[in-house]
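dumping this here so i dont lose it
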């Protein structure tokens, strides 16, 4: 049985009080299709289905907690949750405070612009331009370190970032490739530039004090790859 609860990270309720021995508290930010989003009041997406399948392989239940992306890793550090899955890049900085599963998807950062009239044609033309990013993501730190002359516009949600580009309030956006490609399919007024900024691996973040959970997650992923479940999800959400 999968239980879904839409709780903010500011909530004072103790997750431990509602958890059971065979329940995994999993946090996500369901605003990043096709990885995680809300449809008809329910969480769905590649990450959601993958995590549910992983838990089933482990013989566990999932208690889903939906919150802001910037609070996902802190919720693990504070032991308010056990796992975070939300198209999270594996980085050295994050590895200092949480553990990660083996990479389960390879993406990367790309540039989104308006299809017509944009002065941005690639990474070397972003200087002096306003670039929208989602707060707390790799996009923000990457731009600050590698493109100091870019005017970074931080927003809370992924859809806000795309809207800024479409309405001309930002010259472009830097975000993950899968979500960007999915968005432009139904929004022809924006495009993803061919030249990628990075190639990055997504991982499932786990609390540092639960190494056995990392092992179990990795074993479950291997099983799902072997039995075809993983490939079925890839085809369903990415056409791969």
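and the seq i came up w/
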């Amino acid at each position: 049985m999968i239980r879904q609860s839409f709780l903010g990270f500011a909530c004072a309720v103790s997750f431990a009080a509602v958890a059971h021995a065979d329940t995994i508290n999993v946090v996500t930010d369901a605003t990043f299709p096709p990885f995680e989003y809300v449809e008809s009041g329910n969480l769905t997406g590649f990450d959601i289905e993958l995590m549910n399948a992983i838990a089933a392989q482990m013989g566990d239940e999932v208690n889903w907690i939906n919150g802001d992306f910037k609070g996902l890793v802190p919720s693990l550090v504070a032991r308010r949750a056990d796992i975070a899955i939300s198209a999270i890049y594996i980085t050295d900085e994050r590895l200092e405070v949480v553990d990660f599963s083996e990479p389960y998807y390879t993406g990367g950062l790309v540039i989104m612009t308006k299809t017509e009239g944009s002065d941005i044609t690639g990474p070397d033309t972003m200087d002096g331009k306003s670039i929208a990013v989602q707060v707390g993501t790799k996009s923000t730190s990457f731009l600050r370190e590698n493109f100091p002359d870019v005017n970074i516009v931080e927003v809370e949600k992924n859809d806000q970032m795309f809207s800024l580009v479409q309405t001309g309030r930002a010259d472009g956006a830097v975000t993950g490739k899968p979500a960007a490609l999915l968005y432009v399919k139904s929004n022809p007024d924006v495009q993803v530039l061919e030249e990628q900024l990075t190639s990055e691996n997504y991982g499932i973040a786990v609390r540092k004090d639960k190494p056995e959970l990392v092992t179990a997650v990795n074993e479950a992923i291997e099983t799902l790859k072997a039995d075809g479940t993983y490939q079925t999800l890839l085809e369903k959400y990415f056409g791969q």
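The radius of gyration is 18 Å.
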